[in-house]
């Protein structure tokens, strides 16, 4: 069967639809639009908080999803939305004076590194990755990425409109846990709509607010919601205009080694995320997807590098869309091609871009308050799901120094104006110290437990990563 031919099926209620099967095109189109709604909120929120163009991010999410499906031979149903793994590194780049070209240049290199990892995994097998990046390490790195973002919420978004932020965050929390089924999975999108309406209502009832976001800015009166340029924006056209730092929305990358080091830890998060998502899809579909793990990693890396070459945002497989498949039991890759097509159309609509740019700062403050915390706690989720035992020195002592260095912003001056710190230094220390202690454990052996490790608990092999490891709500 050709890769672009799907077996048409009419399943009984509750019967699954496989990756190489599809419903009639009308129903497939409906499912594709549902996938767009599921990925929509996070895919354009994260470019906004990274200072990149959301229209471009939506456009490339569609293009990159098609690339991913083709590379994986339509065997791995997944949608590539904007990744949260690089948000912390991007914040660090901007804090050091880097602009959007520096951001996309660093992310492009990270994408190429992930592509290389994918090629390696394809030929060597995923077990080698698990050995270098066991759950204890990947969980720690994901936590570092999330906790590094806390100051961004506190200093940039929250001060714009604290009450709108608090009410939006409260709505998001309750929507995510109380709304039934699919509605709970699109809680971020619903929170955006709620925050927009709330901000507009406050403008009508309370008038302008005097505030600003960011250190050193001057508070000025302004409306919470503004649609300047909406009437003039075209319905169809390539993303254009300039970003807040003066860099064109569509731009070429600028590569700096210092900035590259700040985002490389995000590669570890993407490796964990992609492997976890492929395993989750394999478990749902019953297919053996191990032969496609390297392809999935490489495709995500290539997609991230491709998007960054034009000023777009990094990509990753989305848990939200996996949740949709879990609810519908329809795993057809044909639905993802429809979703990708809809995203491309949205990305080519400048009016849509103006609407996204109009998201009030207070709304972003509430959403990022929850999202950034969830990124952090996904690291703990990785630990719990994989039974990481902190009675073992490799997990306790091996991770401790790197965690404090990364979260606290400890920096190491290497001379000549070259400095490494924050997430980058924390990640290096986590990996090096963990494996140094683990090497000592292996030399002691399971029959002679190391001090502080109960007999019978010593492992001579690094456990394989299991479960879904992700960045988004």
TrEMBL record:
Transport among keywords: yes
This protein's record includes keyword Transmembrane helix: yes
UniProt-annotated location(s): Membrane
Please report the organism this UniProt entry assigns to the protein.
Pseudonocardia kongjuensis
- Residues crossing the lipid bilayer are 29-50, 56-72, 79-97, 103-124, 136-157, 163-179, 186-202, 254-272, 334-357, 363-384, 396-414, 420-439
What domain of life does the UniProt record list for this protein's source? Bacteria
Species lineage: Bacteria, Bacillati, Actinomycetota, Actinomycetes, Pseudonocardiales
User: Which key words tag this protein in UniProt?
Assistant: Membrane, Transmembrane, Transmembrane helix, Transport
Family matches, as PANTHER family: PURINE PERMEASE C1399.01C-RELATED (PTHR42810), URIC ACID TRANSPORTER UACT (PTHR42810:SF4)
What is the protein named?
Solute carrier family 23 protein
Ranges where the record places region Disordered: 449-473
- InterPro entries registered for this protein in UniProt: NCS2 (IPR006043)
Topology of this chain in the membrane: Multi-pass membrane protein
Q: Which family does it belong to?
A: Belongs to the nucleobase:cation symporter-2 (NCS2) (TC 2.A.40) family.
């Amino acid at each position: 069967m050709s890769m672009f031919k799907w077996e048409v099926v009419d399943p009984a209620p509750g019967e699954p639809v496989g990756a190489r099967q599809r419903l009639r095109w009308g129903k497939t189109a409906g499912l594709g639009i549902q996938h767009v709604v599921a990925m929509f909120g996070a895919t354009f929120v994260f470019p906004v908080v990274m200072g990149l163009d959301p229209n471009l991010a939506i456009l490339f999410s569609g293009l990159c999803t098609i690339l991913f499906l083709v590379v994986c031979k339509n065997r791995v149903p997944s949608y590539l939305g904007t990744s949260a793994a690089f948000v912390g590194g991007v914040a660090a780049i901007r804090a050091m004076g880097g602009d959007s070209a520096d951001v996309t240049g660093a992310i492009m290199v990270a994408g190429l590194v992930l592509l290389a990892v994918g090629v390696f995994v394809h030929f060597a097998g995923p077990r080698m990755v698990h050995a270098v990046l066991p759950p204890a390490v990947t969980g720690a790195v994901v936590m570092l990425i999330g906790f590094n973002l806390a100051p961004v919420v506190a200093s940039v978004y929250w001060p714009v409109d604290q009450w709108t932020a608090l009410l939006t965050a409260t709505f998001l929390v309750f929507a995510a846990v109380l709304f039934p089924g699919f509605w709970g999975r699109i809680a971020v999108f619903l929170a955006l709509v709620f925050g927009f309406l709330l901000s507009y209502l406050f403008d009508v009832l309370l008038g302008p607010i005097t505030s600003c976001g960011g250190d050193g800015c001057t508070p000025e009166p302004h409306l919470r919601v503004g649609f300047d340029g909406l009437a003039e924006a075209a319905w169809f056209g390539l993303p254009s205009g300039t970003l807040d730092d003066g860099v064109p929305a569509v731009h070429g990358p600028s590569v700096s080694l210092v900035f590259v080091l700040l985002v490389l830890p995000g590669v570890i998060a993407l490796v964990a995320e992609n492997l976890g998502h492929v395993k989750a899809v394999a478990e749902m579909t019953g297919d053996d997807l191990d032969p496609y793990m390297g392809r999935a990693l490489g495709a995500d890396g290539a997609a991230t590098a491709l998007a960054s070459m034009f000023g777009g945002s990094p990509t990753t497989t989305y848990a939200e869309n996996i949740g949709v498949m879990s609810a519908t039991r329809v795993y057809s890759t044909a639905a993802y091609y429809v979703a990708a097509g809809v995203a491309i159309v949205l990305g080519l609509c400048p009016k849509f871009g103006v609407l996204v740019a109009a998201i009030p700062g207070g709304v972003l403050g509430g959403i990022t308050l929850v999202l950034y915390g969830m990124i952090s706690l996904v690291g703990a989720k990785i630990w719990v799901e994989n039974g990481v035992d902190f009675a073992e020195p490799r997990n306790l002592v091996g991770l401790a120094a790197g965690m404090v260095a990364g979260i606290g912003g400890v920096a190491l001056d290497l001379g000549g104006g070259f400095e490494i710190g924050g997430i980058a230094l924390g990640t290096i220390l986590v990996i090096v110290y963990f494996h140094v202690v683990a090497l000592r454990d292996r030399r002691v052996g399971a029959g002679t437990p190391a001090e502080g490790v109960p007999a019978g608990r010593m492992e001579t092999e690094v456990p394989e990563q299991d479960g879904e490891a992700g960045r988004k709500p």
